[in-house]
């Protein structure tokens, strides 16, 4: 890491222990770089949500698939920019899940600040949880905290899997 910027890149299998380590590293660096407490809190919250998503939603290998890549492998990048911070993540997901995930993110991106609040409260009230135990609040929470649209890309890598790239900007001036 450079002395005046945050730069962290990781590619490999993610565990909750690794998530804890990354958060500690970034928190220590951010504490020394960022004087604005609100920006630090946003960054911690968004980074934690992004890393938890990687832990909870990376697909398992289906024994029927013959793929030449590690399905559990993820990519994480955290960098500082002139105006804020950039968090980028990537992981493999089953291609059958792409349309649902894309629709979910597009729904979040279609909402303004008030719309995100209403959607968040509606999901909390419905108390519907996914098979992984989540309620679908993560992307809403990231959008609310950052005040930015969620950037994503899906790349098909086999007949069964796609690579999901996710990018969020934390602007110091918002």
Structure characterization notes:
This protein has 174 residues and is α+β, with helices and mostly antiparallel strands. The protein has one domain: Heat Shock Protein 90, CATH 3.30.565.10. 43% of the residues lie in helices and 25% in strands. The protein has five helices and five strands, in the order βααββαααββ. It has helices spanning 16-33, 37-57, 98-109, 113-126, 138-146; strands spanning 7-13, 73-80, 84-94, 151-156, 161-171. A five-stranded antiparallel β-sheet has the order 1-2-3-5-4, covered by helices on one side. β4 (151-156) and β5 form a beta hairpin. α2 packs antiparallel against α5 (138-146). The two termini are 26 Å apart.
Reconstruct the topology from this structure.
Layout: E1 7-13, H1 16-33, H2 37-57, E2 73-80, E3 84-94, H3 98-109, H4 113-126, H5 138-146, E4 151-156, E5 161-171
Helix pairs in contact: 1-2, 2-5, 4-5
Keywords:
globular, 5 helices, Heat Shock Protein 90, five-stranded antiparallel sheet, 43% helix, 5 strands, 174 residues, alpha+beta
Number of strands: 5
Indicate the radius of gyration in whole angstroms: 16 Å
Helix count equals 5
Structural class: alpha+beta
- Share of residues in strands: 15-25%
The tally of structural domains comes to 1
